[in-house]
Write a structure and sequence with these properties.
The complex is a heterotrimer of chains A (172), B (359) and C (126). Chain B has twelve helices and eight strands. With 359 residues, chain B is of the alpha+beta class. Chain C has two helices and eight strands.
Chain lengths: 172, 359, 126
C-alpha cells in the first residue's frame, strides 16, 4: 500500500541523532590495520636489487644501483602493494595514511648509508677475488692432474699441460 | 506532425555520474530515437596487455573502474588460472566469494543512492550512502583498500580474513540488514517513488532476449539468468536462487537490486559459515600458454574476460566485455517513446558504468 | 546442497564464409550473442574475430573464431543479431577490420576519440 511520507519517521529521528560524519581535519582518522595508504622503505635493509622498480605496474619507483638511491613518485604510485610482495629483503611496507594532494608531483628520495655501501662493495670485491682464487686453484689442480696423467701416458704429454697453463692466465 | 529536433544528452548531466553522450531525436516531449556515443574516457587499457607482464597486468585490470574493481580482477585471474590449469585452495575460493559479495553490496548501495538522488529524494540518498560507508569500512578493514582491493593473485589470494574480522563482518551485516529494511520499506512503499518509476521503461522478456541485455536489467524482466550459478569461486557450495521480477519497469529494477543486497548478506553469512581452514594460495610456475574465455557475474551483470597468451611473460590479448556495453541496446530500445523527463531515470536504471564500457 | 550448472565453454574455428550460416543456426537455436571482438596479432599478421553465443537455459557457450588477413573482410551479422552493431562498430573503429554491410553503422563515430584504429595495424588520426 503506497503511503506518503514513509520516510518521515527516519528523518525526524535523524534530527535528534549526532552526525555520523567526523570533523576530519580536527579529528584524526582512525585507519584500520593493514590499510593501504603509502609505501615506506627501510633503507638500511635495501640492497638496490631494483626488483621493485622492474615490477611496478605504474613505473613510480626508480632505483640507482651506483648511487644507492631509492626514489618514489608519490603521485604515480597506485598503492597496489606489488613491490612489497616482490621485495626479497622485505624492506618495503604498505603503511596507512594517504598521500596528500599537492600542486606538483612529489618525489621522495632515499639514500643508502655510504659506509654500508662501501662495506658491501668491499665484500663484493673480496668475494670476487675469492671466487677468482678458487677458480685459479681449481685450474691448477686440473693442471696437476693433467700433468700426472701425462706422466702416465707419454703420448699425450705434449698438448695437455700447455692448455692447463693457459686457462688461469685467460681468466686473470 | 510536429518538427523533429535533436537534443544532446550528456556527457555532462546532473543525473550522470559518468560521461555518456546520447543524441535524442525528439518530437515534442517524446523521444523517437536514441543514438549513444561513447569514448570520452577511453584509455586503451586493453592495449596495455602487451606492455605489462601478466602478473602486473592484474593491477592494471583492477583499475579499469572503481566500482567493479574486484570483479575485473577476479575475472582476469580466473581466465589466467584456467589457461594454466591451476586449482586454487578452497579457502581462497570462499574469500573471493565474500569479497565479491561485499563489493556487490557496495555497488548496489551506490546505485540505489544515485537512483534516489535522481528522482529528487535527497534524504534517502544520504541514508543509503551512510549505510554504504559501513560496507566501505568493512572492505578497508579486510583488504586495506576502500574501492580497489588488490587482494587477488594468480593462484589464490594474498590476504586472509582472521576470525575477529569475520566476526566484525557478521555484526556489521546485521546492522546493515536492519538499516536496509527501512530503506526497502521506503523504496517499495513510498507514493512518490512509485509514481516516478512504475510503468516506465518497460522491457518485456522477449525484448530482453532480442536485445541481449544482462544482469539485473534482464532479471527484472523475468529472465532467471545469473552467472554465479556456473559455480565459479565458492558459489558452487552456496545455496541461492537468482532474484527475478516480472514487471520489467524501473520499479522492478529497483526491487531486484534491493533484494540482491539482502541476497548478498545471506551469501556472506553462508560463506563465513562454510569457509574451511587451509592454504591461501598455490605456487604457480611458468607462463600461460593458450586462450580462455571466462564469464562471471558482476554487480551490473554478466562480464566476459578473454585472455590469449603465447607462452611468454606478456600476454597477447586481454579482452573485457562489460555489462554496460551489453545493456546499451536495451537502453536505446527503452528510450524509444519515452518522455524527456524520464530519460535520466532510464539511463540510471541500467546502472551505467562508462569507464568499464570504454576501458 | 546447491546445484552447479556444468556448462560447456569451447572455442571453435570457422571459415569466414560459414560465419553467417553459423549465426543463423545459433539464432534458430534461440541463442544469445554474448560478445564479438577482434584482435590484430602482429606476429602472425592476422585478425582473429571471436563471436560468442550462449544458451540462456543451459548456460552452454560456444565461441566461433574467424581468422582473417589484413585485407580480407568479414560479413556483418547485424541482419541476424541487430544489437551486434555496437560490437562490430567497436571492431572497425578500434581495430580497423573490414566488415561488410553493418546495419545501423556508426561510421567511426561510436567512440569519440582522436585516433583512428588505435589497436589496428595502421594507426592514424581523424
Amino acid at each position: 500500500m503506497a503511503r506518503i511520507m514513509r520516510f518521515a519517521s527516519t528523518m525526524l529521528a535523524n534530527l535528534f541523532k549526532p552526525p555520523v560524519t567526523t570533523k576530519y581535519p580536527a579529528e584524526p582518522i582512525d585507519f584500520p590495520e593493514g590499510s593501504r595508504g603509502h609505501i615506506e622503505i627501510e633503507i638500511d635493509k635495501c640492497i638496490s636489487c631494483s626488483l621493485c622498480a622492474l615490477n611496478c605496474p605504474a613505473g613510480a619507483i626508480k632505483v640507482d644501483r651506483v648511487k644507492g638511491t631509492w626514489e618514489i613518485n608519490r603521485m604515480d604510485c597506485v598503492q597496489c602493494g606489488y613491490c612489497t610482495i616482490k621485495c626479497p629483503k622485505k624492506c618495503l611496507h604498505m603503511m596507512p595514511g594517504y598521500t596528500e594532494p599537492e600542486k606538483e608531483k612529489k618525489f621522495d628520495l632515499f639514500q643508502r648509508d655510504p659506509a654500508v655501501m662501501e662495506a658491501e662493495r668491499k665484500k663484493k670485491a673480496e668475494a670476487a677475488a675469492k671466487a677468482a682464487a678458487a677458480k685459479k686453484s681449481l685450474a691448477a689442480k686440473k693442471a696437476a692432474e693433467a700433468a700426472a696423467k701425462a706422466a702416465e701416458s707419454p703420448a699425450a704429454a705434449k698438448s695437455e699441460p700447455t692448455k692447463a697453463e693457459q686457462k688461469p692466465a685467460d681468466q686473470a | 506532425m510536429a518538427r523533429k529536433t535533436v537534443v544532446p544528452f550528456g556527457p555532462q548531466h546532473p543525473v550522470l555520474p559518468e560521461p555518456i553522450h546520447i543524441d535524442l531525436v525528439m518530437e515534442d516531449e517524446k523521444v523517437l530515437e536514441a543514438v549513444p556515443n561513447i569514448g570520452f574516457i577511453h584509455r586503451g587499457l586493453e592495449g596495455l596487455a602487451d606492455k605489462r607482464d601478466f602478473n602486473e597486468l592484474l593491477y592494471v585490470v583492477e583499475r579499469t573502474c572503481g566500482i567493479c574493481s574486484f570483479g575485473h580482477g577476479n575475472g582476469y585471474v580466473q581466465a589466467v588460472e584456467k589457461i594454466m590449469d591451476v586449482e586454487i585452495p578452497d579457502r581462497a575460493k570462499f574469500l573471493r566469494t565474500i569479497w565479491a559479495e561485499i563489493a556487490r553490496m557496495h555497488s548496489h548501495l551506490l546505485w540505489l543512492g544515485l537512483q534516489a538522488d535522481q528522482f529528487g529524494f535527497e534524504s534517502l540518498f544520504y541514508e543509503i550512502w551512510r549505510i554504504r560507508e559501513k560496507v566501505l569500512d568493512l572492505l578497508e578493514l579486510t583488504t586495506g583498500g576502500r574501492l580497489i582491493f588488490s587482494v587477488n593473485k594468480i593462484g589464490g589470494v594474498i590476504k586472509d580474513i582472521g576470525d575477529d574480522k569475520m566476526k566484525a563482518i557478521l555484526t556489521n551485516m546485521s546492522s546493515i540488514e536492519k538499516d536496509m529494511r527501512v530503506v526497502q520499506k521506503t523504496f517499495m512503499g513510498d507514493y512518490s517513488v512509485q509514481s516516478r518509476t512504475k510503468g516506465i521503461g518497460v522491457l518485456t522478456k522477449d525484448q530482453i532476449h532480442e536485445l541481449g541485455a544482462v544482469g539485473p536489467v534482464a532479471r527484472a524482466s523475468g529472465i532467471s539468468r545469473d552467472m554465479r550459478k556456473l559455480g565459479y569461486d565458492g558459489y558452487g557450495m552456496i545455496d541461492f536462487e537468482p532474484i527475478t521480477s516480472v514487471f520489467g519497469d524501473c520499479f522492478a529494477r529497483i526491487d531486484v537490486r534491493l533484494r540482491e543486497v539482502f541476497q548478498s548478506i545471506d551469501i556472506i553469512r553462508q560463506a563465513i559459515d562454510k569457509i574451511p581452514q587451509g592454504e591461501l594460495s598455490v605456487n604457480v610456475k611458468g607462463n600461460p600458454n593458450g586462450e580462455a574465455l571466462v564469464r562471471i557475474e558482476q554487480p551490473r551483470g554478466e562480464a566476459i574476460y578473454y585472455v590469449h597468451s603465447n607462452g611468454t611473460k606478456f600476454i597477447d590479448r586481454y579482452r573485457n566485455r562489460t555489462p554496460t556495453f551489453a545493456n546499451l541496446p536495451a537502453l536505446c530500445e527503452m528510450l524509444k517513446g519515452a518522455n524527456y523527463a524520464d530519460v535520466g531515470m532510464m539511463v540510471v536504471t541500467i546502472d551505467p558504468c562508462i569507464s568499464c564500457t570504454e576501458r | 546442497m546447491a546445484e552447479v550448472i556444468e556448462a560447456a565453454n569451447e572455442i571453435v574455428e570457422v571459415d569466414r564464409d560459414r560465419l553467417l550460416e553459423t549465426a543463423i543456426l545459433m539464432k534458430h537455436q534461440g541463442r544469445r550473442l554474448v560478445q564479438a571482438q577482434t584482435t590484430w596479432y602482429k606476429k602472425s599478421e592476422t585478425y582473429e574475430c571471436l563471436y560468442t553465443f550462449t544458451d540462456d537455459d543451459t548456460y552452454d557457450t560456444t565461441t566461433y573464431k574467424v581468422i582473417l588477413t589484413k585485407d580480407q573482410s568479414v560479413p556483418s551479422i547485424t541482419s541476424i543479431y541487430p544489437y551486434a552493431n555496437f560490437y562490430e562498430s567497436e571492431m572497425t573503429e578500434l581495430y580497423g577490420v573490414k566488415i561488410e554491410m553493418i546495419d545501423g553503422d556508426y561510421h567511426d563515430k561510436l567512440y569519440r576519440i582522436k585516433a583512428v584504429h588505435p589497436f589496428g595495424p595502421e594507426e592514424g588520426e581523424k
